[in-house]
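dude i think i finally got it to work??
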Amino acid sequence: MDLIELDAPAKVNLGLRVVGRRADGYHELESLFVPLDLCDAIALRVESARATEVTLALDGPAAGAPPGDDNLAARAARDFLARAGITARVAIQLTKRTPVAAGLGGGSSDAAAVLRGLAQAFPDALGRDTLEELALALGADVPFFLDPRPAWVTGIGERRAPVAGLPALALLLANPGEALATREVFRAFDALARPRERRPDPPRDLARDLALDAALAARLHNDLEEPAVRLCPPIARLRAQLAGAGARAVGMSGSGATLFGVFANRAAAERAEAGLGGPARGWTRVAVTSESR
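look at this
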């Protein structure tokens, strides 16, 4: 029996632009994805068996994750074993710390961590391309978490280019406590039917963008924030609170509803969190992004 322990980091989008819509309905994006030190913990127990069996046990402070086979982590394990033609017993212990349905990629990261863990347990079972296919079939954000590091992400999430020169950023995450369905946010975006403005190009001079508050604010623009605010007005109030707490710039991650303020360091973010008092029905977290590697 193998015991494999992995971290499943959350992520934020340092800016997001919707650049098109495919014939199958999926929207094409351009975004800078950055992992956080906020992580779920996954332990995989893998042993040989005559028939495949996948079980999932959930604990941790982030409630609301789907149980059993409805969880992406369990689906990832079943898909890996089926594609590899392996019968095995896989027990997944998932400790949830990343809030659910928050635009932070927690479920996608869990699924990718399971794929990484099983690839470690069965190193010759599947090639990298097949692993990428499995990840994309599970969700658009899952491929990014196969190798979670700062990356410029395009397409529907399947194309990634590592980004150099990104230092760690101290963030205060804030969520109004209202879950937003990604599909509904994109539907609201399409309903706006406005010409798409030109936004920052792929990162070429991150040192400049991060040093100048105006450039940083421009880079953090998220095309989905306006439709998200229409569906969840408290997002706008949270933005104003973060700005008032001294954030250098404020952005929204993914399709929301989590906002984040960028602060000079963790201590400054923690002071801002204490002063913010927390949304009435929501939550706040201090987190730090991963540096480029």
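The domain at 170-288 is CATH 3.30.70.890 (Alpha-Beta Plaits).
im so relieved honestly
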